[in-house]
């Protein structure tokens, strides 16, 4: 007997796709035409599945509203960017790049500075930089339960991706949000300063509230989306309100005279650290355009 169902891909692993729908979760393979046309099917995709005595096959994929490149998840409603405050010198560049990617894909970002209980208040000024820029920021500690209730409330609907470098506490936070998940956790290696890759593949996990969350593998770099160098400043909310004050249209806010953005940096209205990282990313885009 042949039957059909619609559902969401909740896991892709070992050549199989696990689709959750009205009939529960079933293991599927891809119809050959997907491979022939090199069509990408990823976690979060809405699909149509045909079930028969021979097994279940993904026959059709539905249009996406967005798709993150890394982590590879589709139809994302929000991304929780988890970063360890103890490793902020490395993490802030990754965070800025991730914020650019999320804006490019029109995904709502929530910055989660984890393990904030380990820093004195006098050392958390960098957090205010992102709050003042207009981002939603949450301070958390899985160990102490700080911010866990607030985070839980934000996950009640849609698909949420937890992302960040390895060892920053993504799995620990999810375990705190939903006791019983028992996700594997790992600490930062003291010798090489890297987290253990405790999550090996992307998987959507259903929460009792109705939302779906993805605990993703850690990363140490983020590829920039295909944007022009003149567009980069529009991915920085704190710069956007000054751009019209620049003398030149298409100002890169780098060396141009009468640049309102650079004046704002000098006046302390834009964080110098964020601006310096902007320049580094701008140089990367310029190198990419040169080929």
How would you characterize this protein structure?
This protein is α/β, with parallel strands linked by helices. It folds into three domains: 3-61, OB fold (Dihydrolipoamide Acetyltransferase, E2P), CATH 2.40.50; 78-215, 3-Layer(aba) Sandwich (Rossmann fold), CATH 3.40.50; 229-290, Orthogonal Bundle (Ribonucleotide Reductase Protein R1, domain 1). The protein is built from eight helices and eleven strands. The strands form two sheets. The protein has a six-stranded mixed beta sheet, with helices on both faces. Strands 1-2-3-5-4 form a five-stranded mixed barrel. The chain is globular and about 70 Å long.
Per-chain topology:
Layout: E1 3-13, E2 16-21, E3 24-30, H1 32-36, E4 46-52, E5 55-61, E6 78-84, H2 88-104, E7 108-114, H3 125-132, E8 136-140, H4 148-154, E9 159-163, H5 170-177, E10 203-206, E11 212-215, H6 237-240, H7 260-266, H8 272-290
Parallel strand pairs: 3-5, 6-7, 6-9, 7-8, 9-11
Antiparallel strand pairs: 1-2, 1-4, 2-3, 4-5, 10-11
